Amino acid sequence: MKNMKEISSYEVVDNLRKVMGTLPEEQPQLKTDFKQLHKECEVTLEDHMCNPYKSMFVTSTSTWGNNEFKQKWPQTSPEGKLEVVKAVLTHNTLPQAREMVQFIFRVRGVPRWLFDYHTQVPFTSFMSIGCRDNNKSDVDIVTQRPLQEDEQKVFSRLKGLYAKALDTDQASWQSARSFLPQSYQHSYHFGQNLLSIVSMRGFNASGTFGEGQKEYALWRLYVEVVHAVGSKFDLIGRYLNMVIDHKRRDEILEEISNFKFEDLSKKDKELFYAE
Description:
single chain, alpha+beta, four-stranded antiparallel sheet, 14 helices, elongated
């Protein structure tokens, strides 16, 4: 029996993947389906703090008053809590209160190149499914427009070269990945805080985020991000609409400023009543 010093990190990971049932197939069937980004892009809110409204309230009011041990959240009415949160969301308090609100997202159905571009966003953490230790013979191709027949043949040819290199033992999964086109379907997780999300600049709903296709693709992804957050936390989702429609920024801030407690969704009201 091997001791811990004799067990490599690769063996540890493989054993964990075996337990989870996620070990890749050695030789999955070679196939290539062609899909479009706007139909395949899917973002799921995988994890979040229990009550982001409480977090914004507690962190923003922690600098108010001279009694650092006073618990202000339970002593404040739900309506009063909302007024503090509105001050945070309309940028009338220290920005760190928004920085404390963390989200973790899962992205599926996007091309690999979009992941590479996304990783340039500051103050964001990423974990990605790799191609070094996974066989990609059966991955699909995701593009922003329908491909013509001759274009599909190019992608199929590259996938064929990848599979051939593996079949003939000419390359490992790691070295064979040089044959893979950057449009192969990819999935990953990323973590980003509320301040980082709302501080993003350079794209808008016209699809000219920097006047480029990659910028528009990232905008499409953040449309899904905003919807994912809004389905769980309605008021925060309304606030984040300025990310995907920056021209309405002032209008959105005005709407939040005028928001009343009775305007909150049922889920949000429960969070303001929570201890």
